[in-house]
Specification:
The complex is a heterodimer of chains A (626) and B (383). With 626 residues, chain A is an alpha+beta fold. Chain A folds into two domains: 56-241, Penicillin-binding protein 2a (Domain 2), CATH 3.90.1310; 253-281 and 307-469 and 488-624, Beta-lactamase, CATH 3.40.710. In chain A, the strands form six sheets. In chain A, strands 2, 3, 4, 5, 10 and 17 form a six-stranded mixed sheet that branches. Chain A has a five-stranded antiparallel sheet with strand order 12-11-20-19-18, with helices on both faces. The radius of gyration of chain A is 36 Å and the shape is elongated. Residues 1-7 and 379-383 of chain B have low confidence and may be disordered. Chain B is globular, with a radius of gyration of 21 Å. The termini of chain B are close together. Chain B has one domain. Chain B contains 15 helices and three strands. Chain B is 67% helix and 3% strand. Classes of the chains: A alpha+beta (626), B mainly alpha (383).
């Protein structure tokens, strides 16, 4: 008993020590819990939310683009996609086999689908086919009971109802490339499209809108359990352009088949009513994803369908430049309205002989005659006396030689030369002969069709420096802010008398029997046009060739033919519109470019006075002058 | 003969029932009920499949517990070695013909019942060691050679369990036995020596660990090294615990557990779910119940008038403590994942049964606390 009582004492001591030890350890556990659940709690709460909460971006619908009357020219179209959720099928193979009767699947497609199914968790929808046509959709809908796991998803894709006619203005949308990722999470959304050219690119941010957010709870396998919150995005704003859809389509139709550009401006505010370039391309193809062969065709085509010739094509202005030379000469007193020169068909300068387009000359011509009949010798003389600098200066004032800042990407500035330019770029000093041919708009000089139209607008509006623009307004979903404030347009400071003289001379070009574009006059009541033709030599005509007789344009290779140009305004009284037409290697300005300009100017004026489109355009008249 | 019955009033069954510490039984029941609640939550608010079965097991175990408690403690003393031998044979049988489960051989089928011998061993070893030290004098305990037999009693089953491989149970067997050695009066410096030897043997022991066991230890040391692989359990468990905060996300509102981020939430990681849903407050409340049970265990042990009952009591209590500590330390990332369930809460019949049998012995010790048993006594002859 004694012994046991000793043992008992010792046991009790040891038991107390054990209990104490266990108590210490449990206290340590409590401390650990305190550390995890109180001190570090925030950190783990965040980690838990990261675990379970996924953010899904909701892409906003892209804003529409409309013409000046609100007619959509870039819209969104529903795109039906066929999806497959493998966990809802009895077997993926049997569903695909059943589907085969409605949508034939190639072996590669089938392999791709099976691979996607394998890679994704069974509740993730796998795309079987995009861009389904309506009959396929309805057939699938009807057969849903036999197609377990099949799902039709409606997305939106960009659609251009008039395809090629607006391609160069609107541009196109396509998938985002690596270097375009800016941090806007929308751009990283698979299948998201952004503007790559034209208005789509310039106003991409406004058209894009802002993405919405959907916060969803997912489990450890990524399956969505429920939506926690949803924030709808801001749909893209609608962009209204200054273009007139019907006019644009007419212009596109008139230059179809040519390599050409047409620009129509409102001379008072610079609104671009038409901006067409031919040949064109179908922007819808870019959206769907262009095959590389198709792309190569577009790029290697010598008529460069991807280039917007209206803003990026650069040409010598030819005789359309003569108004500028005349105005410079009048301003500097080199000539008066009465000054006349005798044209015998050529002018000599040193050893060189400069020819007039009219072999036997125009006889005695004053400034007005020289413009209306496009006498070259008169302008050789004037240019020689005027000098390069004064010509350049006047050209610059009228909008040539620098980009005009139109709201399209990649606008070119053309070239108006100065002696300094030639020295630093060509490496030789300016020659007097170069001034002489500059007098008829040839030599070191380049302009874009847009610049020609702008120049004409500035002549016709009494010397106001309008600049062209395409965007009329941007209408966001909620805000209807329209910029109606009239901006004071600066003047180019040209004497109204001089302008009047030039404008009247241009009216004679078209309306005087001896004018170079008399055949393209408009004969409807209350509708009229003034203008100036231009025919630009692309190749040099040698002296020898001139003696045997210059080849007719038709006999030459397309690449060697003359460019046909025309600038015009209308109506003659109280002008409202300016037009420029450039047909690359088209032949004569009067025979090719003027009739196109005539049809368009007639149309725009008819529309203005309220006569419906093209009701009165005779079918074959345009052809007759071609 | 009287010696064996000294001061002992032979208790009738009714008297015994009267002596059962019903508050202690209540504590066990309440803790188990917390477990049913957590299993209900783990099933997404359903009594099936876990809570209902666990209740049944508890019901059966509860009866077994009471029956064991009523059995005269001298019976257990007498059959302690037989029970131990039976457990050992089953362990060997598992080694020979065990069912492969969870990558380890742990189960054995006897007729229709599937038994996990390592669990049986947890109790059997306590009984065997208690009997050995009960019949050893204090002076003898101090003789190192007298310790060889009990060391063998521990080493053989622990080695077999480790071979299964079940590190968690092996550790529990060794530590639980250690507590009995300690309470029996083995000199302190010997524990120091064993500890030193163990640390020295660590590099050797490492070689004997299975790849997955090594992986668990490595993962424990640096869970972030493989966050989606073997580190996943610990990381997700800590996230769940930590995000529960002080007051928890609410019963059945644990996002980590219910969205399947937390693995094994109804078994080994159930404490994590509890702490996520009920917060630190809930976790401390559960710990408080455990501490009350432990206190009862210690008080019963210390107040017992025979060495056998005292040692059984301390062995059972420490085993229970080891369940609690190893499980919670594991899910809070304090020790490597070793696969020890949370006592009375985790889903699983074997651990529940082991625990209730253990508690039965503990209650039995309490009932028979006044029974005096001689050192040499292995028979009950009074009756």
């Amino acid at each position: 008993m004694h012994r046991d009582s000793d043992r008992h004492k010792q046991f009790s001591r040891r038991a107390a020590m054990l209990a104490g030890g266990q108590f210490v350890l449990l206290t340590a556990l409590t401390g650990r819990l305190y550390y995890l659940q109180v001190i570090e709690s925030e950190k783990y709460k965040n980690l838990a939310d990261e675990n379970r909460i996924n953010f899904r971006l909701l892409p906003p619908p892209r804003g529409r683009i409309t013409d000046r009357n609100g007619v959509p020219i870039a819209d969104n179209q529903q795109n039906y996609r066929l999806l497959l959720i493998s966990e809802n099928t009895t077997s993926v193979d049997s569903t695909l086999n059943a589907l085969e009767y409605i949508i034939p699947l190639s072996d590669t497609e089938r392999r791709r689908i099976l691979r996607d199914v394998k890679r994704n968790r069974s509740f993730v929808p796998v795309t079987v086919r995009e861009n389904l046509i309506w009959s396929q959709v309805s057939e699938i809908e009807v057969n849903t009971p036999d197609l377990p796991g099949v799902l039709i998803d409606v997305g939106e894709s960009r659609f251009y109802p008039h395809g090629e006619d607006f391609a160069h203005v609107l541009g196109y949308v396509a998938a985002v490339s690596e270097n375009e990722i800016t941090g806007d999470p929308l751009l990283e959304l698979p299948g998201f499209r952004i503007g790559k050219a034209g208005i789509e690119k310039v106003h991409d941010l406004a058209l894009r809108g802002t993405g919405g957010n959907s916060e969803v709870e997912v489990n450890a396998y990524g399956r969505i359990i429920r939506e926690l919150s949803r924030q709808d995005g801001q749909p893209g704003a609608e962009v209204q352009l200054t273009l007139d859809m019907d006019l644009q389509r007419l212009a596109a139709e008139r230059i179809a088949g040519e390599s050409a550009a047409v620009v129509v401006l409102d001379i008072h505010n610079g609104e671009v009513l038409t901006l067409a370039s031919s040949p064109s391309f179908d922007p819808n193809r870019f959206n769907q994803g262009l095959a590389s062969a198709e792309w190569n065709d577009l790029v290697s085509n010598p008529r460069s369908p991807l280039i917007n010739k209206a803003t990026r094509g650069q040409y010598a202005p030819g005789s359309t430049f003569k108004m500028i030379v005349a105005l410079a000469a009048l301003e500097h007193g080199i000539i008066t309205p009465e000054t006349s020169f005798f044209c015998n068909g050529e002018m000599a300068l040193g050893n060189a002989v400069f020819h007039c387009w009219r072999k036997h000359g125009h006889g005695r011509v004053n400034c007005t005659d020289a413009i209306s009949q496009s006498c070259d010798v008169f302008f050789y003389e004037v240019a020689k006396r005027l000098g390069i600098t004064r010509i350049s200066e006047m050209a610059t004032r009228l909008g040539l030689g620098q980009p005009l800042g139109i709201d399209l990407p990649g606008e070119r500035g053309g070239l108006i030369p100065t002696p300094e330019w030639k020295l630093s770029n060509v490496g030789s000093s300016w020659q007097k002969g170069e001034t002489v041919i500059l007098g008829i708009g040839q030599g070191y000089i380049l302009v874009t069709p847009l610049q020609l139209a702008t120049m004409t607008a500035r002549l016709a509006n009494g010397g106001l420096a309008v600049t062209p623009h395409l965007t009329r307004r941007i209408v966001a979903e909620d805000s209807e802010d329209e910029d109606t404030s009239e901006v004071e347009i600066p003047s180019v400071d040209i004497s109204p008398t001089h302008l009047k003289l030039v404008i009247e001379a241009m009216a004679q070009v078209v309306n005087h029997p001896r004018g170079t574009a008399f055949r393209s006059r408009i004969e409807d009541d209350g509708i009229s046009m003034g203008g100036k033709t231009g025919t630009v030599q692309v190749r040099r005509i040698s002296k020898a060739e001139r003696e045997i007789g210059v080849k007719k344009n038709d006999e030459l290779d397309w690449k060697d033919r003359d460019h046909a140009l025309f600038v015009g305004y209308g109506p003659v009284e109280n002008p409202r519109y300016a037009v420029s037409v450039v047909v690359e290697h088209g032949g004569g300005g009067s025979s090719v470019a003027a009739p196109i300009a005539r049809d368009i100017m007639r149309e725009v004026q008819l529309r203005q006075i309220g006569i419906p489109l093209s009701a009165t355009v005779p079918e074959d008249e345009g052809q007759g002058h071609g | 003969m009287a010696r064996y019955r000294f001061g002992e009033p032979s208790l009738t069954t009714w008297q015994k029932l009267w002596h059962i510490n019903w508050v202690f039984v209540m504590m066990i029941t309440i803790t188990s009920c917390i477990g049913f609640g957590m299993l209900y939550s783990a099933a997404g608010g359903s009594i099936d499949p876990w809570a209902s079965r666990q209740m049944t097991r508890f019901g059966i175990g509860f009866v077994i517990m009471l029956v064991i408690a009523l059995v005269d403690i001298r019976i257990w003393l007498r059959y302690a070695y037989f029970i131990y031998l039976g457990g050992l044979l089953m362990l060997i049988a598992v080694e020979v013909a065990g069912t492969i489960g969870m990558g380890a051989q742990r189960w054995i089928s006897i007729g229709v019942v599937t038994v996990q011998p390592s669990e049986v061993m947890k109790i059997a070893m306590v009984l065997a060691l208690a009997r050995y030290f009960h019949s050893t004098r204090t002076e003898e305990v101090h003789n190192p050679f007298r310790l060889l037999i009990p060391l063998m009693l521990v080493a053989v089953p622990a080695g077999l369990v480790l071979r299964q491989p079940d590190l968690g149970t092996a550790v529990m067997l060794v530590l639980g036995s250690g507590a009995i050695f300690f309470a029996a009066g083995v000199r302190m410096w010997k524990f120091g020596l064993v500890l030193a030897l163990a640390i020295a043997a660590l590099p050797v022991g490492w070689q004997f660990l299975h790849t997955y066991q090594k992986q668990r230890v490595l993962t424990f040391l640096n869970p972030e090294q493989d966050p989606l692989g073997s580190g996943y359990h610990i990381i997700q468990s800590k996230i769940a615990l930590g995000s529960g905060g002080l007051f928890g996300k609410g019963f059945m509102q644990g996002t980590q557990s219910h969205l399947s981020f937390l693995p094994e939430m109804q078994t080994d990681f159930i404490f994590t779910m509890l702490a996520e849903e009920l917060g630190m407050v809930g976790a401390i409340a559960l710990l408080t119940f455990y501490v009350i049970i432990l206190i009862y265990g210690f008080v019963i042990s210390v107040s017992c008038r025979n060495q056998f009952g005292r040692l059984v009591g301390i062995g059972i209590t420490t085993t229970f403590f080891l369940y609690v500590f190893i499980n919670i330390a594991m899910v809070t990332g304090l020790i490597p994942v070793v696969g020890v369930p949370l006592p009375l809460i985790s889903y699983g019949g074997t651990a529940m049964l082991t625990l209730l049998i253990g508690f039965g012995l503990l209650i039995g010790t309490h009932i028979h606390r006044e029974t005096m048993i001689g050192r040499r006594s292995t028979t009950i002859d009074a009756s």
